[in-house]
Amino acid sequence: MSVRSASYVPQAATWGLGGIGIAAAAPLLGMGEWAGWIGGGGVVVAGAVGVLGHRGQQRQELHLSLEEGLAPLIGGRSTVVTRGWKGWPGTPTRVIIRYDAVAKDGDPNWKAAVVDATQRRLDVSATITKHDRRGRRVVLTTRDVTKENPVEQRVSRTIGDLLGSGARVTSFKSGADGDVASFEVRHIPTTKVASSGGYRAKVERTFGHVHQGRWRCKWDLEHDKVLFELRPPFPEVVELPRAQVDTKRDVLASYDKVSIDFGVDEDGNKLSWRPAVDPNLMVVGAPGTGKTVLEHNILASVAQWGWPIWVVDGKAIEFLGWRTWPNVQTVASTVETQVAVISRAHEVMEHRYQLIVAGRASEDDFEPLMLFIDEWSDFRANLTDWYTTVKAKGMPTKAPVLQKVASIARKGRSSRVHLLFATQRPDAEYFGGDMRDNFRCRISMGRLSPQGAMMMYQDPNIGTTVPRGRRGRATTIDENNRPVETQTYFVPDPRKANRRGDQSQLDILEGLMPDEMMRRHGRLIIVPPSDDDIDKAGSDYTAWCSADWVPAEARPDLDPVTNTAVDAQRAREMASPMAMFGIPSTTARPASDTVDIDDLDDVLNTTHGADDGYGLNVDADPLGLSIGDLVELEPGYWVTVDEETEEDPLDPSLVLLCWRDDEDNTGATGITLGERVTSRRALIEEGAL
Ligand SMILES: Nc1ncnc2c1ncn2[C@@H]1O[C@H](COP(=O)(O)OP(=O)(O)OP(=O)(O)O)[C@@H](O)[C@H]1O
């Protein structure tokens, strides 16, 4: 706009009065019939001149205000031109500035300040579209935000408060409900954002607090922008889908394609284990976090690919329901059979290795074998107890089968003997040396301790804030090597579903059965060695290692599956502590008072209070808190520290505490500097590095 003086009043008056005067004089000039038209025309023109003049004056004031606002930034010898005015009185759509040589246009904040001044003075959203430093010329394009819908205006205001008035909100997108679901913010204060993770978390959480919702930010610091989007809610339960098996292809032909989906991330993307790429899978999880369910879902998927499955059930009861599942050949629930299974798997591996070495076969000739070792620590403890009782003179101090597991983990890839290794806690024993590299695919169920996180992911923070109230929630490393939280798939346990007669769960299981043509491996029975065999072998241990395996049909007398019908009432009586002391139970409790034996696991697994892996309450300085510490935000309401605490970038009198609670709510709370909080720190675990 070129600046015009506000002379519209006399001009309008001249037109109006002139028109009326001429109209009055018209009859005298013999133009009486035109008097009305002349008078009316004069008034109309006067009105138009007045109204347009008034608008021009308002625009001029706005322009001058802009010049004033920009003056300290662009210097005295500068010009500001406003073009393309729209609206009433309107705003210019373009602002062209030729600035003085004294302007600090090299300062990284200069452009943001120019944008800021333009936005504030014109009440628009502005962005620099051209900047010619040599010609000292800046062109800004503006948008009238006062015409935007109220929600978008409110979003823009919050962003202004959080990221500075130079930040510009663009590209609003609505969700299915018509509400804002995402938007982009450009010209963010990158240096400030980059220097503080707490600041980033605070922006995300405060925005979520003000605008009600779980928002997440995708920062693009290279381009000074950030995308805000509504975080999709994590589903509480996701059923395991059927594996995408090409049943026309032979197991050997499909080997490279085998992909075992185990869960979804918050965007619903599947997370998978590819045995051909990462031969072994490590699962770590405290009781009740969903480790067993995850293993069941891996088992149900692997079975659909037609692979034979051998299970070492360290806890003896977790896989009982899968004994009759197609392709599950053996579920070993005693330490003797467990030793037999691991020894055989090791033998298969060694045999295949020898074939390769002798040039008689190659990796491509081997049918994959899936070995599950569940509850490693329980198995190892039972094994150690048993081994000391059966160890003969001259045998190694430690059961050699322990070494065999390490060897399978190391060499399984070429022999296609794949291992799923599950344990309650990461342990220095199998995370030391090269063992970690043998388990590149790792899943930690539930929350890890900082030491556990260090062992699993070489980072004390990854997986340490997983909400405790969400079962099946886990952390893993995705194919891009980034830590990602996942909700693992839910699979019912056939044993529990059968016992409860839960038809919907039985239907789910039915839907996961391998196709008829993929049911390729029958059940096997491990025949206990006779006294003779033991004598010949030199010890029980050695005899079990080389025990015979026969098809289940050959030895119905040894088949544990043939005699499993359980009378629920009888089972309850047998399980009562009184029965264990030999005292008959006299008082029958009403059924509603009783806890189903299978639910007992869940009850016992729910961790409460002091025995939950955290130390005692301590009075702490918020600045000394670490990620993963618990903090009592309100009496009885504990949250987990989710980012390093630091001075609040928006208010130096506060310490910024970003947190996550057990139900997966997140927030940011400012704690007055000097104030103390009640906190609990994760205990250091036995065996930690
Ligand atoms: N992916 C999941 N989705 C929904 N609920 C789950 C999921 N995984 C587990 N749960 C719930 O948590 C309970 C405990 O799971 P699970 O038995 O797998 O725990 P665990 O870690 O193996 O415990 P334990 O080591 O004592 O066996 C299940 O009975 C189920 O109710």
From TrEMBL:
Q: Which residues form the FtsK domain?
A: 255-454
Q: Which PROSITE patterns match?
A: FTSK (PS50901)
Q: Where are the transmembrane segments?
A: 12-29
Q: Which UniProt keywords apply?
A: ATP-binding, Membrane, Nucleotide-binding, Transmembrane, Transmembrane helix
Do you know which Gene3D superfamilies this protein is assigned to? P-loop containing nucleotide triphosphate hydrolases
Span of the secretion signal? none
Q: Where does ATP bind?
A: 285-292
InterPro entries to which the protein is assigned, alphabetical: FtsK/SpoIIIE/SftA, FtsK_dom, P-loop_NTPase
Q: State the protein's name.
A: DUF853 family protein
